[in-house]
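ugh ok fine here u go
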Amino acid sequence: MKRLFAYLQKYMGRMGLGLVIKFVGTMMDLLIPWALTHILNEVVPQKDVGLLLWWSAGMFAFSAIAFSFNVIANRMATVVARDSALEIRRDAFSQMVRLTVPETDRISQSSLISRLTTDTYNVHAFIGRIQRLGVRAPILLIGGAVITLSMEPVLAGVLLATMPLVTFASIMINRKGLPMFLRQQKAIDKLVLTVRDNITGARVIKALGMEESEIERFAGVNSDVSLWETRSGATMALSSPIMNVILNMGLCAVILVGAARSDLGLTQPGTVIAFLTYFSIILNAMLNITRIFVMYTKASASMRRLDELLSAKTELPQVYMDDCADKNAAIEFSRVRFSYSGGEDEKLNLRDISFKLQKGETLGVLGATGSGKSTLIRLLERFYTVSGGDIYIFGKPICEYGEKELHSLFGSAFQSDILFADTIRANIDFGRGLSDEAIVKALRCAQAYDFVSSQEEGLERRLAPRGADLSGGQKQRLYIARALAASPKILVLDDSSSALDYQTDAALRHDIRQMYPETTVVLIAQRVSSVHSSDLILCLDDGRSVGLGTHDELMRSCEVYRETAQLQMGGDI
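structure:
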């Protein structure tokens, strides 16, 4: 919870003022039973109506002050809870956006969603509740105990004898509840993941008729959430009946002892009545303190998860690289090795990949599914750090680039990319402030200008979420236009033309060379026709480089490439 206190430091002044106001209002609440006792014991026997009205007016004033001050303090508490939760949620989202890809994989997307929603809500609720009841309940408890001790020590002793039992019960219940809330939040993570998978994969599920299967899968995950909610809720719910039993037993003891002492003339009836009122105040205070402990347990579990997110790595570790790069090369891989699991040898996803690509040239990367093509791109853009070997961009070790500096060099389009529910212009511009000329140029090069200009709204046409109202080829052309719009120094096309016909694909590659001649292109493909005109072709098989050269060279020297070309095009390319 240290991080939560750090967020609350800037609000300490406002919280302090609110606590003072809350303290005054609570003290007024405590004075009302005391005034009632004085009226019953001292004023009523005098039969002085004027004095009775004065004391009644005083009780009314106490009530009005208590009500007004508590309302003001609660409003101030709500503002603090709102603003602090806003900052926590903002920082958590900013951290999520900046997370390294390995950290995102480790935490998981579903867990990130629940941390920014459920967990921040739990923390928000706790901040508000602790300000409203965190001061009021202890003051009522301690103040009630002090006043009752001053009024009648014997009866107060009977009441206070229940406190150790209440404290012990609260500690044991909360100690058992915290792990359950952590398990509950993990179950919610799985629930979010299941819902997210079903929303994104709705078309596949319907096409394969797997609705009933997915309903059963969701039912299992939902049952797990329900199980842990029931267990944690039942455990924490024990606190209220246990408190009621203990404190009501104390109340019975107070009534019995008070009646006996009143019969003996040792205690006045008004004092016994006041004790019953104070006992109700103390009982409610204890129940509120118990609720605070319940919320603290939830908030503590949620804050641990948020702290894990806020403390996660936003930078990949630095890897030393030898300064022996070709200063004229745009991209250079030197014996690059990589494993997602961190293993060696048989667990490597890429093994000893080496090549050089000069400025303005095109590298075609060809290989079957799972051969390591996309992994190579992830290393090139430093989403992951190499396990061994060196990567240089324009003669500079990749690890010496700042993240923004490195990514500003790239324009990337992927096969499964994202389009937002916004205009075509906004999707291509992507908040970069690009001119209309740059956007139109990119659309023309990506072979997307004709279908965009044919729309009645043109660039202002709003797209459905994820571009659901576009065909696969239209979406891919917009991905490519977005990648080209900022005139990147390095263009990465990761199987982003798979939905294009051969004629459009050929026109796209031709126009990129004509309209962006200074751009170095890395083209990932499974079709030989997409890479055969590249200046350099890298053929991958099971993470290994099995061929490197031009199309003609690989047709002579690389069996994998030659077989792929013959299967796809009959060797006539």
